[in-house]
Write a structure and sequence with these properties.
Blueprint: H1 3-8, E1 14-16, H2 25-33, E2 38-41, H3 47-60, E3 65-70, H4 76-85, E4 90-94, H5 102-107, E5 111-116, H6 119-128, E6 132-136, E7 142-143, H7 151-161, E8 166-169, H8 175-183, E9 188-191, H9 193-196, H10 205-211, E10 219-222, E11 229-232, H11 235-245, H12 250-257, H13 261-267, H14 291-310
Parallel strand pairs: 1-9, 2-3, 3-4, 4-5, 5-6, 6-8, 8-9
Antiparallel strand pairs: 7-11, 10-11
Helix pairs in contact: 2-3, 3-4, 6-7, 8-14, 11-12
Keywords: Flavoprotein, FMN, Oxidoreductase
GO molecular function: nitronate monooxygenase activity
Pfam families: NMO
């Protein structure tokens, strides 16, 4: 049996990324009900809002789901206690070292997965005692590793560095892409962008429609002095590019970013002033679908490509 499916108790080795302003209880429960693993994105939720989403997700699905926790979250202690109090069983951590919180989570019976951008960090995750690793290439939307390593280079490097169950992320939105990462050593995929653009996503329709009309090259990795972030090119990104080009300081970049930029763009639909985070793979998709349609399409594409490769039709 696939180790990812076995670890989480799911039908398909497809995990929905826990994205800020997109990953509420409707999206997470829909992914879990369709056979994948849905994740609530705690990064854009106050602790009590997260509690509400956990309870609504528990009511909407009897399947496993989890919570993504950025470890630099300002109220991290409160959030971790809520995970315990609400009986959360699966936690994906990111944006920080897993060493501090992994023992706490595992003491409370949780399965812990950490997101990395390099084989060095993958080895540190294994030392910290996590149950699985997400290796995310820089094609991904939102916050990225400083190494700027692509997914196809990162997966085999991480596979050599650890024997833990491995999920591939970054630039994956189709079944054939999933199969490609499996050939390199992954056992499952974490998909953000395609799920962010589904009907059940809590992202604003303006944001979804903008992203469903992107072409290659319409996103860029910026904000490298703060935390490298892949953004849709536009009003805000032009201001960021201008500031970075003239060598703006970290303090100036923080002031430019301000507060609530991501909420303004992705959740409220302000496409000029908002921070619009999405992955490169958005350029492959043109219509808003349901979660069930997306998962069916991914699994159909995976099986068709696997058949094509194994029946000799793709041989030289």
């Amino acid at each position: 049996m696939n180790r990812i499916c076995e670890l989480f108790g799911i039908k398909y080795p497809i995990i929905q990324g826990g994205m800020v302003w997109c990953s509420g209880w409707r999206l997470a429960s829909a992914v879990s009900n369709a056979g994948g693993l849905g994740l609530l994105g705690a990064g854009s939720m106050h602790p009590e809002v997260l509690r509400e989403h956990i309870r609504k997700c528990q009511a909407a699905t009897d399947k496993p789901f989890g919570v993504n926790v950025p470890l630099m979250y300002p109220e991290i202690e409160s959030l971790m206690n809520i995970l315990v109090e609400e009986g959360v069983k699966i936690v994906f951590t990111s944006a920080g070292s897993p060493k501090k919180w992994t023992p706490f989570l595992k003491e409370h019976g949780m399965t812990v997965v950490h997101v990395v951008s390099s084989s060095l960090f993958a080895a540190k995750c294994e030392e910290a005692g996590v149950d699985a690793i997400v290796a995310e290439g820089f094609e991904a939307g939102g916050h990225n590793g400083r190494e700027e390593t692509t997914t196809l280079c990162l997966i085999p490097a991480v596979r050599r560095a650890t024997s833990l169950p491995l999920l591939a992320a970054g630039g994956i939105g189709t079944g054939d892409a999933m199969l490609a990462t499996f050939a390199l050593g992954a056992e499952g995929v974490q998909i953000g962008t395609r799920f962010a653009l589904t009907r059940e996503s809590s992202a604003h329709e303006n944001f979804k429609q903008l992203c469903l009309n992107l072409n290659e090259g319409d996103t860029k990795l910026l904000l490298k002095k703060l935390a490298p972030t892949r953004l849709v090119k536009g009003g805000f990104t032009s201001a960021v590019e201008e500031a970075e080009a003239r060598g703006a300081s970290v303090e100036e970049m923080r002031a430019l970013l301000g507060k609530g930029r991501a909420k303004k763009g992705m959740f409220e639909g302000n496409l000029e002033e908002g921070e619009l985070e999405i992955g490169q793979v958005a350029a492959l998709f043109r219509k808003e679908e349901t979660v069930a349609e997306v998962i069916e399409d991914i699994m159909t594409g995976y099986r068709q490509m696997l058949t094509r490769l194994t029946d000799g039709s793709a041989s030289c």
